[in-house]
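Working notes for the structural subgroup meeting. M.R. asked for a predicted model of this chain before we commit to crystallization trials. I am recording the input and output together here so anyone reviewing the notebook later can reproduce the run.

Input as submitted:
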Amino acid sequence: MQSSSVTRALRILDLIARAERPVALKDIAQTLGIPKSTAHGILRDLAQERFVDVHEPAAYTVGIKAFEVGAAHLRVAGVDTVITSELAALTRALEVTAHYAVLDGVEAVYLYKHDPPRSGVQLASSVGARLPAHLTAVGKCGLAWLEPAQVALHVERAVWSDGGEALVRELAGIRERGYADDHGQVAAGVECVAAPVFDAGGPRGAVGVSYLSGSPTPGPQVTEQVRHAAARLTSILGGSST
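Returned structure, recorded in token form:
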């Protein structure tokens, strides 16, 4: 029973974290298929420990303790300073939005972001955002360096209905040239370029940038800078792309 309660609490937190506005108790219970009274009891405990915040009427958002737990992952990993430094350097050099993301299931999860001081592309790459891996440049980097048999597990089923032939060809090209791109697949008029980062265990994540189509910074220069940033992080982490 205790294990079941823990699992339900984690699923509730995950549901709330993915929402852009407070989630009502009735919607939580209905979405997760659990009794409303059970959901309410779990949420009461989570609120008491500050893992969720309560809004009126009965609706919930992620609390400060949940943020602290998530931030601990980045701190313990010991890479937050070097990653943010590389992102800031990319933003200064190119005047673009820079981000770092990892592959999680069928999605790319954005862990770090750095915007230009004036404007930047304020969209999908917000910290904590999740997007389909096969559509994003950072997600494609994660997919391209998986073992072939593992790719299907990280792609939405509908995309893989034909065996993913087109995607497999695209991933092979990405691996050959060392970077991935996205020409408006996520947001019309927005270009994205990303390159993989490796540690001693293999692929770790990807560095990427987003900028408006037709911006004055030429594409080849963006690609070169992104690849260099990813290579520097790979070197710091003791990894290799070969």
